[in-house]
Amino acid sequence: MKNIIELKDIHVSFDGEVILDHFNLAIKDKEFVTLLGPSGCGKTTTLRTIAGFVQPQEGRVLFEGQDISKLPAHKRQVNTVFQRYALFPHYNVYENIAFGLRISKTPEEEIEKRVKEMLALVNLKGYEKRNVSSLSGGQQQRVAIARALVNNPKVLLLDEPLGALDLKLRKGMQNELLRIQRQMGITFIYVTHDQEEALTMSDTVVVMKDGLIQQIGTPEDIYNEPANPFVADFIGESNIFGGKMIRDYLVEFEGIEFPCVDAGFGENVAVDVVVRPEDIEILDAQDGMLCGTVETVTFKGVHYEMMVRSDRFLWKIHSIKCREPGDKIAMKIIPEYIHIMKKEAGTVN
Amino acid sequence: MKKKLIAVPYYVWAAVFIVVPLLMIAYSAFTDTQGNFTLDNIVQIGKYWPVMLRSVLYALVATVCCLVLGYLLAYFMAQQSERTKTLLMILLMLPMWINFVLRTQAMQDLLDLLQNWLRLADIPLQVSNNPFAVVLGLIYNYLPFMVLPIYTSLEKLDRRVIEAAEDLGANRFNVFRKVILPLTMPGIGSGVIMVFVPTISTFVISEKLGGAKHNLIGNVIQEQFLQVYNPNVGAAISLVMLVLILFILIIFSALDEETKEGLL
């Protein structure tokens, strides 16, 4: 598939503070791409650069291969769903959605047809005359989506669109956004700091930190094969610690050698090891080599979260089995669940 | 209950200084010097119609000029850094700390000076003691009252709503026409009232800058009370002006349904 948006060597800084550091990204047509990262990582700036609200000091923005870097926001064929919606308070629902069509001087019958289609798409039939301030957060969100889609953009930019909604509503809207994206068959570029949202919705996740891309991949890749401790820690919960790669397929940590599925790091090389809390199986103390004492137990609904102190680390374990604080247990980790990463400076050993 | 108690001083104030005086004006307007009912005062107003219309015209011109200049200034101010904003605000307010009569006299002196230069340079242009000078004085004195409410409404404007309009394809002109202007209408409404109402009844500015030839209705009312000693006619004119202003404000607000709250 061809690239619809390409960012080439984009550099943005405000008051000497670097926001995007020679940033490169290619986004394929009809993809659902999520820019994920903590606040201040540059994800919103990336989106605003594509929309045309931020002028990068260096670099180019390509849209279907054409350089649009110099094009002002109102001439770009992308539309945005803004954080907290930014609806026009002086227009009703109908006029908010019709705004883009009125600007392009679309005939009245066409406007009416398109607005009706959009209202149907976002399940807001019958809300035409409503004042936007009388709508709930979820309904305002739908109006914002309809308003952005009415111009038939090839790319829809969404800036933390569900951030202001409560959990239940957010789950519902996630599914609706996916349905809308499939139905319209266009590219969605979605910004969020919520890793669960990113994993649920995306075809591709771009993990960012300090204006740099940490990893690009499918949700499965990002979750199962994090490229570095930051990604491992940011996506889901992780036990991250230092270890030593004895040779291919054999790693040592806590003074114990574990078989693993990774290779190519060399022999006797210091590495970082990631084990997901849900990938650790609890056994009775005498049945395993890696032992520890339960320190705390917290009920989390689907599972219990236990902090287990071993010789060198404090392990986080998610399990449906419950143990009491003070219990001695053994931990079993199968080779597939041990993820090896190249050592990075600053990891706690 | 507590809320009502807080309002008591205002009600007393309103009764003593607003309602009673208004009733007194209405009473004077329909009575003669002996206190007998008469429509004579109202009939007499007929000969002041030209002055009244001129006052409305001057006030309208001054208000429109203040609106255009004030909006541009407020728009410019709202886009500056916090420091510049404060500085511009002080510059805008500074003249208002000088006595009003003194300010108007100073403007008269400046215009006279300019008039002399023009005469010496053989430029046939009249800048003092004429309608131009009066309207200029009105604009000069009342511009801040237009700028402040508009500036406030521009400051309150959500930056993202403007971006949303740009995002949907609106160029700068359309952003202004379809988003900024309608959203600052309440500020415009307040500004128009704050300028139009005092300018229509001014008498100091027209007296000083108009060279005694360009009397406005304010001057006529003042004359009736202080020189002709005919307060009943003065009251009648005031009453008619009150109704006229109310009428004009209703027209203003009818011009844009949205601004009704801002104007009335």
Condensed summary:
The complex is a heterodimer of chains A (349) and B (264). With 349 residues, chain A is α+β, with helices and mostly antiparallel strands.
CATH classification, class level of the largest domain in chain A: Alpha Beta
Distance between the termini of chain B: 27 Å
Average residue-wise pLDDT of chain B: 88
Quaternary structure: heterodimer
Which architecture of chain B does the CATH hierarchy give at level 2?
Answer: Orthogonal Bundle
The low-confidence runs of chain A, each spanning 5 or more residues with pLDDT under 50, are none
CATH superfamily of the largest domain in chain A: P-loop containing nucleotide triphosphate hydrolases
Tell me what you see in this structure.
The complex is a heterodimer of chains A (349) and B (264). Chain A has two domains: 3-229, 3-Layer(aba) Sandwich (Rossmann fold), CATH 3.40.50; 237-342, Beta Barrel (OB fold (Dihydrolipoamide Acetyltransferase, E2P)), CATH 2.40.50.140. Chain A contains eight helices and 20 strands. Chain A has helices spanning 43-51, 93-103, 108-121, 137-149, 167-184, 195-201, 219-224, 229-234, and strands at residues 3-14, 17-28, 32-36, 58-63, 66-67, 78-81, 155-159, 187-192, 204-209, 212-217, 239-247, 250-253, 256-259, 269-275, 281-284, 290-299, 304-309, 314-319, 328-332, 339-342. In chain A, the strands form four sheets. Chain A has a six-stranded mixed beta sheet with strand order 6-7-8-3-9-10, with helices on both faces. In chain A, strands 13-12-11-14-20 form a five-stranded antiparallel beta sheet. A five-stranded antiparallel beta sheet of chain A has the order 15-19-16-17-18, with no helix packed on it. In chain A, β4 and β5 (66-67) form a beta hairpin. The longest helix of chain A is centred in the middle third of the chain and has 18 residues, at 167-184. The model of chain A has no long low-confidence stretch (mean pLDDT 91). Chain B starts with a helix and ends with a helix. Chain B has helices at 2-29, 40-44, 49-78, 82-93, 100-120, 131-156, 159-167, 172-183, 185-200, 204-209, 217-226, 231-255, 260-263. Helix content of chain B is 77%, strand content 0%. Chain B is an all-alpha fold. Mean pLDDT of chain B is 88; it is low at 259-264. Chain B is built from 13 helices and no strands. The chains are: A alpha+beta (349), B mainly alpha (264). Chains A and B meet through α2 of A and α7 and α8 of B.
